[in-house]
Design brief:
By secondary structure, this protein is α+β, with helices and mostly antiparallel strands. It has two domains: 124 residues, PH-domain like (Roll), CATH 2.30.29; 35 residues, no CATH class. The chain is 42% helix and 24% strand. The chain contains six helices and seven strands. The strands form two sheets. A four-stranded antiparallel sheet has the order 1-2-3-4, covered by helices on one side. Strands 5-6-7 form a three-stranded antiparallel sheet. It comes from Collimonas fungivorans (strain Ter331).
Length: 163
């Protein structure tokens, strides 16, 4: 691979946010979320040190469980085509798509959640159905000929454009 191609790949995939939790670290890249596990707490909760990549397009939601007075909080990543487990702290601690955090880390994880939700929304917009321009042209012609009302024309046009 030449230098220009390597530079282009690095420019496309960049670290946007990086947040360290109790049993792992979450890294938001331009196209995916990466969960890295290392250390004693990762071995206690996950039985292993590991790294997991989740493409943003594969995510359906992100949920934060607030930390309590005596409990930690967690951030959980829900996959579009995955089985969702229940939301107890004990199960969350062993879930590979979940990272625990303490009350001091909450603000950073809340910011991370917001950034990921924006990426999920943007990826869903990009993956919507293509626009049928021929049908739009026929609709405009029907409106010009007086066959449909302005409100029908606008509402149908919005549906065709996915708005």
């Amino acid at each position: 691979m030449n230098q220009k191609a390597a530079d282009a790949n690095q420019a496309v995939i960049q670290v946007e946010m990086q947040v360290r939790g109790i049993n792992g670290q979450v890294i938001l890249l331009s196209d995916r979320v990466q969960i890295k596990r290392a250390g004693a707490m990762a071995r206690l909760t996950q039985s292993r040190n590991s790294e997991k990549d989740i493409p943003v397009a594969a995510l359906s939601a992100v949920r934060i469980q607030l930390p309590g007075l005596l409990t930690n909080g967690y951030i959980r990543f829900y996959l579009s085509h995955g089985k969702q487990s229940d939301d107890t702290l004990v199960r969350a601690a062993s879930d590979e798509n979940t990272v625990l955090f303490n009350p001091r880390q909450f603000t950073k994880f809340a910011n991370l959640k917001t950034a990921i939700e924006k990426k999920i929304a943007a990826s869903q917009v990009l993956t919507r159905a293509p626009v049928d321009f021929e049908q739009l042209d026929r609709l405009a012609e029907q409106y010009k000929q007086g066959l449909i009302s302005r409100s029908e024309w606008i509402s149908t046009k919005k549906k065709l454009l996915g708005l």
